[in-house]
Design brief:
globular; single chain; about 0% strand; 434 Repressor (Amino-terminal Domain)
């Protein structure tokens, strides 16, 4: 799934998704849950994966 589609599903821009992935900005708790749901995983896994990229 592309950043644009994921952003639409999470209600944010693709740039915001990218900043979350790069851990430049952390999502709000509710956004984190939605992001994880869209990726089919738990919020902890999303944060762990993002942190490993830095």
């Amino acid at each position: 799934m592309g950043l644009g589609v994921l952003g639409q599903r999470c209600g944010v821009s693709s740039g915001t998704i990218r900043r979350w992935e790069l851990t430049q900005v952390l999502p709000s708790p509710i956004a984190l849950v939605v992001w994880a749901q869209q990726l089919g995983c738990r919020p902890a896994l999303v944060l762990d994966k993002a942190r490993r990229r830095t």
